[in-house]
Amino acid sequence: MRFTVLLLLPVLFVFSGCEKDDICSDTTPTTPRLVIEFYDVSNLTQTKNVSNLVLKANGVSETLSFNGVSKIYVPFDTTLDTAQFELIQNGGDNDTTNDNIDIITMNYTRTTQYVSRACGYKLNFVLNPTNGFSFTDATPNDGLWIQTMGIYQSTITNENEVHVKLYF
């Protein structure tokens, strides 16, 4: 009996020093993306699906393609306070002659938020109230396909709400 207790005592000391694993769950909110929702310019309350839309961020070679959706999620550069990207209408098809490129510039500030020891920190963004966005035409002769846009939620802390509405 005494031998068993002496044998179990070191094992108890070994396991008493263990900590639970710190693993950041996939469901833990991390740095949010900008949520853009598209609306019909002739009916301002009606969402509208985009077709063959391509998003290209300034200085990034990869593109994001969207088809048949009214809402897109756009990642911000976490090292800058400005994001500029091209929204290319008809950019997802093989015919480049019908591409219509509008350039959107978003100005924001970044704030750091502690999530947990396992997950670390995440960034939140606040769109500037006076110059939070602008949009221009990359090739003025084809006209803007985006008619107007507005900031719906300037504080970007999650992806559960729409931040910007685009009307076309």
Structure description:
The chain has 168 residues and is mainly beta. The protein contains one helix and twelve strands. The chain has one helix at 2-16; strands spanning 34-40, 43-47, 53-57, 63-66, 71-74, 82-89, 100-116, 120-127, 133-137, 148-151, 155-156, 164-167. Strands 3, 4, 6, 7, 8, 9 and 11 form a seven-stranded antiparallel beta sheet that branches. Strands 1, 2, 5, 10 and 12 form a five-stranded mixed beta sheet that branches. The radius of gyration is 24 Å and the shape is globular. The model has no long low-confidence stretch (mean pLDDT 87).
Task: Summarize the SSE layout with pairings.
Layout: H1 2-16, E1 34-40, E2 43-47, E3 53-57, E4 63-66, E5 71-74, E6 82-89, E7 100-116, E8 120-127, E9 133-137, E10 148-151, E11 155-156, E12 164-167
Parallel strand pairs: 1-12
Antiparallel strand pairs: 1-2, 1-5, 3-4, 3-6, 6-7, 7-8, 7-9, 8-11, 10-12
Q: What global shape is seen?
A: globular
Helix content: under 10%
List the uncertain runs. Answer: none
| Mean pLDDT across residues | 87
Number of helices, counting only DSSP H or I runs of 4 residues or more: 1
Q: Give helix and strand order, one letter per element, not per position.
A: HEEEEEEEEEEEE
The major sheet is characterized as: 7 strands, antiparallel
**Ends apart, CA distance between termini:** 82 Å
